[in-house]
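Can anyone check this?
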Amino acid sequence: MAHAFLFCGVRGVGKTTVARILAKALNCSGRGENEPNPCNKCTSCMEINAGSSIDVQEIDGASHTSVENIREINENIKYPPVSSPFKIIIIDEVHMISINAFNALLKTLEEPPGHAKFMFATTESHKVPATINSRCQRFNFRTISVSDIIGGMSRILEQEGIEATEDALALIAREARGSFRDGLSLLDQVISFGSQRITANDAIEILGVAGRDCFGRLINAVLSRDPATALGVVNELYRQGYDPEQFVLDMIQFLRNLIVTATVPEDRRPEGMIDAPPSEVTQMEDLVKDTSPEELQNLFGMLMRSENEVKRSSNPWIAVEMTVLRMCFAPELTDLAEVLRRIDTNAPSGGARKPTATRRSYPDPVPRDGASSSPERQASPVVDTVAGEGPERGESTRKDRFTITGITPLPTGTPDEVWANLQEAVIKSNLGPAITKNLEHGSLISFGPTEVEIGFNRKVYRERFEGHLESKKELKRILEEFFGDVHIKILTLTQETTLHTGKPYVLPQDGNTDYDRAVKSEAMENALVQAVLGEFEGSYIEDIKIGSPKP
């Protein structure tokens, strides 16, 4: 047996109770040689049950936090037990002890007397110093499942002669959140206000919680696109005095169980994966049989995003109502693989929009981050959208297909390397030392197939370069050879910067740099993006986020 034990876990899962039972087993005089359980009949067991044992001392760590308290324990532990094999110290909520007090206890834990045993219980194990943790035998207590809490409460009610429905016990057990002690406290509240038979309505009314049927009715209304019924359920919860933040948390848990029900077959679910009684699991299976896991995950994401909105809102129930409405009007999701299959097989789609102009698919602009582009991004196919012609009698059968008609090459290398190659080409073309010297004060910020950004460290150099572009056709021809027929943007840099460091070279009021706007514009104009939008009637791009450049 170890000389020190550390029991960790949430409140109400039996840490202190196990410590008392272990203390009884160690000091029990009526226990058989190979029998681990205490007899509960000997003098030591009776004294521990009554809390009057001299050799087993139980201390509250929250009220004994000082060094003097620990020094007193260190002094008393030296003396042998009076009538038991071991002198045992149980410290509850040990994380409340001060650092200096832990240091005072450390020496005793390192070299304890042979008759000494320490048992520590804590709900916040991360606050226990590593020096103490490493000298204890640690046990992590799991939360108690809903079914186990229901079983424990059922045995107690049977002894008390009180009846209770399964739905009522399941509701109380869920509110206990894995803590058996909390479950008993809630059960005690319901018993004190109820009759000899506890129903689900009694628990809902007394505890101020929502029945599980409310969540089922709400999700059913959302999946049926019935906002009136959904808002009616929310209003019902509001009138019952249900906490809006707790409502969102309970809905998240309920949706999680629905997703697991829809995703994992019944014969492959481990016990306890869905922490709910069998009758509720059956209702969940009926609820998800006409929907897909993707749609449920979309609703789950909406709820997760709304959690902080509800917490910050001055009127949280309105935030809850708006969240429920967004869920009701959420579009039905189509698998992306199905969208790509339609494109690849030229399958017509009733919701697709017929493109009116030829679009090109371009690679991303190359930023000044010191990294060269991959071969796939050096050449981008020109993608034409071709509409099929209908029969001669005037009826048209449209088919959208994508045909590669050419290649638009981009310069290879980083922006700095491309700028150096451009300077070398200007020198070979004998355009004069003025142009060559002017280019030494500039740099290539980024380049793509639709836009090129060139920056100069002073306004005068930028203006000179603009004048050279207007007067020297040869300079314009060299730029076209490098970048093609693109829009050239000339900037004045206020400070040395690169896209790698993330410092903007131009920061308009909307918070986007010129490079950000260029990338977003190219993403919107991409032919595949437009085709995917065409697959969904009334769809739009809400936002475009630019990730960090790949190394």
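Reply from J.R.: I decoded it. The CA atoms of residues 106 and 132 lie 7 Å apart.
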